[in-house]
Amino acid sequence: MRELSPPPLNLKRLYKETLEIEPILIIISPGADPSQELLELASEVIGKEYYHEVAMGQGQADIAIQTLKECAHNGEWLCLKNLHLVTAWLPVLEKALNSLQPKSNFRLWLTAEVHPKFTPILLQSSLKITYEAPPGLKKNLMRTYESWTPEQISHTGLSPRAQSLFCLAWFHAVCQERRNYIPQGWTKFYEFSLSDLRAGFEIIDRCFEGTKDFQWEFVHGLLENAIYGGRIDNLFDLQILRSYLEQFFNSKVIMGSQSRGKKATAFPSQISLPNSCSILDYRSVIENLPEDDKPAFFGLPANIDRSSQRIVSSQKLDIIGTYTIVPP
Description:
The protein is of the alpha/beta class. Helix content is about 45%, strand content about 10%.
């Protein structure tokens, strides 16, 4: 039976469905920023020098319109960021869009948070997508391995490096999905993003340059103090993060699975790290994961779901309570 929920967002796949005459509106959640992913896509498709960004705010309206006209005329890409900050200006943007005769290579990307005063005409004329972390550990990992290429995984030919990257993807997903269990998981909502994942990838990549020896303490320190732990301001949460790093990034998990052929003890029983550099082997591991997250994935007690469901129910009731029922 095929799953009914949609696959994780992939901008490269989405690009194939876009047109030069149709803006692409990316609806973001607070703290989410697709800029880096868009830049990487533009670098691959049209060239980094042909991708432009304008962060909307005070004094940027004229610059945005002028850049829009130039990009349409030259067949380049433009991203107008944070349109929810300038909803009163959006009719001007609509008028400018109607007067354009863009070249086929032109693409207009828009980002905005949900806003009640966002103009409906622009909404209707745009291709709309949401940009947020996919729900669930499995989808989170699938999105990561869709963004990574086979060449990135097999770059050095060292299976410990490929295993370390899977550990990084798992660690990133666990950090994000643990937010579903606030306040027992994390004490607050932390904005762990794709930028953190990319920075972690570069760290692991550099550690394996010209050597087979992985510097665990170096990785622990950078991920804890400079990247993921840099935004954590609670001692309890920092201890959780440090515990994850010690569980996932050590020689018993990675080198040990290669030398003894045993399952990694830091992962659930159904997961065994492949002794391989093939991205397909790691995708196969992800596809065999259950659809529903188990609290054990996060080191949480089995009854933690009750607390999570209670919090979600309260949030839904609060939303319903904000609407006033008008009698007919």
